[in-house]
Specification:
The structure is a homodimer. By secondary structure, chain A is α/β, with parallel strands linked by helices. Chain A is 31% helix and 22% strand. Chain A contains 7 helices and 10 strands. The interface between A and B is large, with 63 and 63 residues.
Chain lengths: 235, 235
Amino acid sequence: MTGTLYGLGIGPGDPELITLKALRCLRAVPVIAYPAPPEGDSLARAIVEPHLIGGQREIAIRMPMVAARFPAQEVYDRAAEEIGGELEAGRDVAVLCEGDPFFYGSFMYLFGRMAGRFPVEVIPGVSSLTACAAVLGAPLVARNDVLTVVPATLTPEEIKRRLAEGGEAAAIVKVGRNLEKVRGVLDDLGLADNARYVEHATMASQKILPLSAVGAEAAPYFSMILVHRRGEAWR
Amino acid sequence: MTGTLYGLGIGPGDPELITLKALRCLRAVPVIAYPAPPEGDSLARAIVEPHLIGGQREIAIRMPMVAARFPAQEVYDRAAEEIGGELEAGRDVAVLCEGDPFFYGSFMYLFGRMAGRFPVEVIPGVSSLTACAAVLGAPLVARNDVLTVVPATLTPEEIKRRLAEGGEAAAIVKVGRNLEKVRGVLDDLGLADNARYVEHATMASQKILPLSAVGAEAAPYFSMILVHRRGEAWR
């Protein structure tokens, strides 16, 4: 009997925004794995830290800072091998995923390597998308609104086209180092005043700012910009 | 001291997919309110039923079956008045919201009426969007994918345009009575084979079907179609 690989959605950052199901799984498995920086603490592990009961094996998937594709692929190859060894020995492994595992999560790199060979279960989590809307205190989408979710990692031309053609609401994810590019596109489209910036939604370090007030180099990876063309469509 | 109005995301249907935060709030408030059909049981209440501890006042917001705008507005006017009375008396009220309150939730009709007059807090929940991807066992969006979320209540022309211009992934929500319309559009665009249908994701009544296998009149309100243009982009 091989173990099961769990993709565990742990929510956007507030440890209380984990689901009962994810919490049960987190405490039941003998092995947890999580993304981590080259050195130091993992954000995903920090989110669930209040819930850990100890005695579990932990696998830190340490990603080099270099954004090149090949080192990352090697890291996932090695992680898949190590996690696969646990599963083959009959031990369940839960991979901690900030937000939801299937919403731009790095879990999919493990999923792609392992889904055919081992049983996989994904436990959905509260995504940054709705967490940002909640902390902004404004509906993300209402009634017949169309929502477009655009990664800030695309080219400026592509982001511009997606936003220009897009619906009443747009979410720009993965802002991070792409902040100036996105700000330029929103200025070009005359949408800067409709945009709101959130970083680390629901975490202690949460910040909500008008786009113009965000410093040029200040955006962390976990930041998002929500844009609404409409006024208050929910009235 | 007025009470606080909570928009409580209770998740997509599995009672275990409620967050710790929503559960704490659910049990702490003296009054809960929830959408309900003209007669009989509320789905939102049924989802949290295993967690209720009794002794709370319950306000069922009963929506007439007629989809006309004015009766619905009157129902929300009355509900806002009744809930407002509780808040003015200093009692917190939690409004139960399937999925997430700000993701096409009917909560926004109360929010629009009450947000200026009372303290409001929204507790985000697991949305149907990521719940459907989880039960399908396929990433919703990966890497640089653009996601377009389109309500099936739009005109066929509008749905067609949105899907044609849309990104690598699309989610068509509010399928219900609009199933044939959506199926026609997907056929026209040659996307029918890329579409997967889910109803009642994570509930006991969950069904996953190829689009062609869904009966013409069979789609309930809580159904969704996910469309991916790509193959397995996460590999």
